[in-house]
Fold this protein.
Amino acid sequence: MKRLLILGGTAEARQLAEQSVAGLVDRLEVITSWAGRTDRAPDVAGRTRLGGFGGAAGLADYLAAEAVDLLVDATHPFAETISMAAHDAAVIADVPRLMLLRPPWRLPPSARWVEVEDLAAAADAVGRFSRRAFLTTGRQTVEAFAGVENVWFLVRLIDPPSAPLPLAAHAVTTGRPPHDLAAEKALIAEHRIDTLVSKSSGGTLPAKITAALELAMPIVLVAPPPPPPGPRAATVEECLGWIESRL
Ligand code: NAP
C-alpha cells in the first residue's frame, strides 16, 4: 500500500482525491491537505488535514513522518508559496512530485481583454479605463486596489470580510464557485459593471468570463506566476496515470 499526499484547495484536488480513492483503494492511501483559508471544512474522500506545514522544511518533515510515497501539488496556480515549498520539500524528502497545472484559457479573438503581469498593473489598468469594476481576484488581493479612488468596486469574496475593506467605494457579494451564468449576468447588470477583474486561473472557463464575453465587457486578467520546475499534468486523468504508473 502506497501513500499519496494531495495539496488541495481546488476543485481538481477534490476530483483527484475522489477518483484515486474510488479507483485505487486497494493500492493507495490518499491524504488531502487544505490551507484552511475559508470557513468550510474539508469534505472529500480519504484522509484530510488542515493548516500550513511551516514552509518547505515543515512539509519535508511531514512527508517523512507520514511516509508519503507520492506528492501531487493540485493547489491553485496563484498559490505560489506552497507550490515552491512543495518543490523544495519533494527534493529534500526525495519524494516524486507532480504539479497539476490547469491549461490557460483560450479567449476568442473578439474578446475585449488585457492581460497584466501583476495586481499593481491590474489596479493601474482599472483606474485608467473603468468606473464600476467587478473585482473577483480574492480577499488577499483587495489591498492592491486601495489606491484606486475613482472606481466603484463590487468585490466578490467566498466568506464575508472580517474587517472593513480598504476601498473608497464598494459593495461586497459573497459566494463560492462555480457560479451560474445567468446569475453572473444579472449581478453585472444590477451593479452596472463596466469591467471584470480576474486572475487568469486556467482550466474550465468560469461563468464570470463567459458572461463578460457575451456582454462584450472588458476583462482585466492578472497573469499567473511562473510555476516551479518539474513534471506537470494538465488534467486529473493525467495525474491518475502518473500515480498509477508508480504503484
Ligand atoms: P500560498 O500563498 O501559496 O500559501 C501560503 C501558505 O499557506 C503556505 O506557505 C502554507 O503554509 C499554506 N498552504 C497553502 N496551501 C496549503 C495546502 N493545500 N495545505 C496546507 N497548507 C497550505 O497560498 P494561497 O494563495 O494563500 O492559497 C491558499 C490555498 O487556497 C491553497 O491551498 C490554494 O490551492 C487555495 N486557493 C488559492 C487561490 C488563489 O487565488 N491564491 C484560489 C483558490 C484556491 P506553510 O508555509 O505554513 O506550510
